[in-house]
Predict the structure.
Amino acid sequence: MIQLNPLTQKKLRRFRSIKRGYWSFLILLGLYLLSLGAELLINKRALIVSYNGELFFPTYGSQLSGRQFGLNYDYEVDYRSLKKKFQADNSENWVLMPLVPYDPYEMDYAEEDSTGFSPPSFSKGHFCGTDKTERDVLARLLYGFRIAMTFAIGYLVLTYVIAILAGSFMGYLGGKYDLVGLRLVEIWANVPFLYMVIILVSVMPGWWGVGWQISSLLIIMVLFSWTGMTYYVRASVYKEKSRDYVSAARVIGANPFRIVFRHLLPNVISTLVTFAPFTIAAAISSITALDFLGYGLPPPTPSWGELLKQGVSNLRIAPWIVISAVSALVLTLTLVTFVGEAVREAFDPKKFSTYE
Amino acid sequence: MRKYLIGFFVLVNVYWFQGCDNPQLKPPRTDGSGQENSSQDGSRKIDREFARELAREFGREFAREFALQMKGYSDPSNLKFVKDINDTKTMEGLMDGGGKVHPLLSHCSEDVLEFYEKHPDCFSISSIDNLPQNLNWQDGSEEHEFASPKAKKGGTWEVFMRDFPRTLRTIGPDANGAFRSYLLDYNVVGLTHPHPNSDGYYPGLAKSWAVGEDGRTVYFELDPNARYSDGVKVKVSDFFFFFYFMRSKHIQAPWYNDFYGKDKFQKVTLYDEKTLSITFYKAKPDVVERVSIRAKPEHFYEELDGEFLSKYQWNPEPTTGAYVALPENVDKGKSVMLVRQKDWWADKKRFFRYRYNPDNIKVSVIRDYNKAFEVFLKGGIDMFGLAKTEFWYDKLPDNHKLVQNAYLSKVTFFNQTPPPSYALRINSQKPPFDNLNIRIGFHYAMNFDLVLEKIFRGDFVRMNTVADGYGGRSHPTLKAREFSIEKAMECFAKAGFRERGGDGILINSNGQRLSVELLTGYRHFEDVLVVLKEQAKKAGLELKLKILEPTAAWKAANEKNHQVIFSAFNSFVELFPRFWEPYHSDNAYQEFGDSKFKEDGSLKPNLTTKVSTNNFTQTAVREIDHLINKYRNEEDLGKITEMAHQLSQMIHDHAVWVPAWKKPWLRIGHWNWIKFPEDWGPKETRDYEEFQVFWIDLEDKKKILEAMDENRAISDSPSVLVYDKYKTE
């Protein structure tokens, strides 16, 4: 068990006491955990199939072909029609489908008149309607949320790692290192982010898998946006390194790495933590914006930006798309902001200042 | 002494032109101080005109000198600028015996003359006596007019463009924008025009024409009335000048340099002031169309130099067409107004008289397509293309108020033209597509049936061959491969992909997945590709979609870096399709001809890929090559037809091109004050603006606007019209 610094414990208690932020945090966490298990909630694959006395759990793992259930095709079995078939046959076999029986890639062209943009329907299980190619909007929202959040967390971790390394390097060593390092950072920060992303995304080889493409998009975004945080780290390290405990550590012969990571960092981190929720919000907004412009996640990956774009260009005929996407975006960003405000308040050094 | 004098004149000439066409004085500025600028421009314009007048005067002096030299006239004051050349009948070549310039070219600048002289095999002047006697002259009188005699003149036709034109030139960098069509394609009159309802031609600048015995020389007799918008008569020498212009490096248009190059347009001969002939490199059945060029106003350009681009950036050339763009009608960044000439030369001519009806065409910039549509619904634009399914069905449904009240009409017009070639082009050079079975399997795995049914709601039809829409030249029975999971899997199994992996994608014995990249530059067809991707999974094939900016996708395909690209080429209305560009091995590899094949016809290893050609499929098959070579040299239409069918079949068997769809119609919405002829438009209409046969009924416009104010319907039935006279399937 990690032993938390009493001061940190105090800060966390304070955070918990700020109800709005704390609850937002819990909701956000809950939603994210929910989205991690999205396959169990929204999926075209059944949760459980009982066929000839044998139980199948197809949610995770390899796909099951139609032949395994006595159908005459090799591709993945269509569980919804399998369910209907079992019901019609009145057999012992049964299928348990998730709450929303669609996945975010699947086009529900089952109905004769389904040619895109079906309005929300509880009977069909399309709670938020469908998009242009009859894909379930709710499914795309939730899976899109998972990708956006994971992306944002990855973005947060990576930018912080780079910013902390670069910032503490400049701040701790100071002098020429600082002078040159800071100039390089300034130059780097002036590279236009959006254009670079557009250029780099267009030269990305297509034979990379979707996972690789998303990761490389993440890396590209991190590469061009870690600079902002560096300044704060550098300034905090500068401030902290003149304190006595650093001199004390140096006197007893601690090496610079130990001083930076064991002694300085815990004191610097509180500044950074207050920025974290806003960084998350920024990451979600930028990935959505990039998707909206068409330079983000490779199609047909579920994404909020893509939904927004569809929604905006079909505002009159399919308002449910834009309503769902905008509500989801606003809700998420609001929650993140509430968390951010609470964290900022909880970590505000003024509250614990001893110089009163 | 005389030599010096001539030299002086030339010098003065050049001096004046450089002075008056100083590029700094030319382009209208885009900054805010419009008022001041325009007055300045005005005075400069006068200067320029004065200068030009003077220069022309010197030119006349010059010509007079020459003529005097040649004929020894006693009274030089009687001499006209372009002298009637009855006396020069027997002259051959560009020069007469005494080394003087032929009167037909007496007005040409030295640079231009030098160009002609350098290519004596290309440009020649002959005597009218040398004109073949047994020519079968045509004048299009047997063809029917395709415009309506009911047409009324007047009104302003409001249209939109997505972007403001970057120049009013029709050639050179940046000239290739959408606006050029209004200046050039829809407007300018050529020597003859292919009749859009038949295989014949109708007269333009030429009032009659005849194909020579060799089948590749076409003789034209110019219409004596043909004039440019500045009132200057169209001269035969303008067709000499056309080639000087098109082959000039100053226009910075390599494509045109090449297209109008010497290897295709081998010879132009002038016979007298109204007769000329143009010789094409080959006797093609459609040679008249191929050589029916437009006139270039030599009096306007005189000659070209390095400042061509800047000189003519905002200074459009005089046109033979009905509408003129004048610099004063350009509202920079906002709109361009084209004005109909009051006394257009072709106003009363058959085939032109009921066309080009509106007095003005106002082309305004609306950058966003959806916004343009909203403007259209408000009446700010008169017509709007509704080809996109969502516009036709969802955004302007039949029960829309404007349609119900018959203020607006929704029109479906079935046309017959070669469709843009929407297709998946498979790069047969890249594994796994070097295997024929994989390619055929890929064909069967593409569910275009579902795309057509669901995304295009059954309005589009499947394209079947590589050359659909060419009448008899299209293969009559060949069908595109249908979607069939069984057949696809059978083919993939033959190529070694037998097992399905955990994700349902086929793998071969080496553990390789059957996964390919599908590249496109068409973001608006993402939905189509998503459907194809999801359906292909059923056959065990994974498609990785890569949607890029159009230029980036184009570049990748030009470098042959794609596995499969979804793209389309625009097709022209032509008599027979082209095969050499997209399917000849010379456009796939740099090694020439048969040198790239082994004895048995297979490709040698380590060939060098040829980039920047239209052979996106990297097709290199010896038999196809040989047939294409024969096809290109063939002059008989019957044999051409037969070979076109064979080639379509061979390419189908080679399975590198998955045909997508074609739309057999045009769909537009228009306000009901726009009127159309009975059949709506000619058969070969590709674009509602193309033949300009519509007119604006100003009285109806008033009535409709009044009715709208009172919220009263014009008619009881909704205005949804179908013109299926030219429907084929």
